[in-house]
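[agent] plan:
  1. take the single chain provided in the ticket
  2. run structure prediction with default settings
  3. attach structure tokens to the ticket
  4. add a short note for the reviewer (M.T.)
[agent] executing step 1
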Amino acid sequence: MDPDPHDALGDDRTLLIVDDDKPFLTRLARAMETRGFAVDTAESVEEALAKAKSAAPAYAVVDMRLGDGNGLDVVSAIHEKRADCRAIILTGYGNIATAVTAVKLGAIDYLAKPADADDIYAALTRTRADRIDPPENPMSADRVRWEHIQRVYEMCERNVSETARRLNMHRRTLQRILAKRAPR
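[agent] step 2 finished; step 3 output follows
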């Protein structure tokens, strides 16, 4: 007989999902409800802080960058009210410094977007004894570098000169990298 997946959640199954991407928020909320969570959603830091202060959830999935602020503020506020909350930060702009900050503020995991519902559920219910299997096909170092350059390029609104300045790279070198296909 298969074990009930809802047993991993415990008695309090309240989950707050905070993301300003409405379609993603709706899909994730539905997926988490089918996995046994009592889901509440917020689309801004302000809305999430209000919900966290009135009733801090047992679980939280919080986007790092929101239209009105930083998701780390939400994680911090939740942990002030409820220290045992299992919070996860989702981000498309991952780096080591923010991952460390997220963990210091109480997040249990830090997932890069796009993360699917299975990844998020696994991260929320994982115990310290569970080991994460390394990915079968991890990105190469060249691909990680290329992805980072693309992210900064988009953040700079596709301005090559500004991107090159922020990456401390010569503009022509950056232009050559941008002209090539993505490495595998």
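[agent] step 4 note for reviewer: Residues 1-7 have pLDDT under 50 and may be disordered.
[agent] ticket updated
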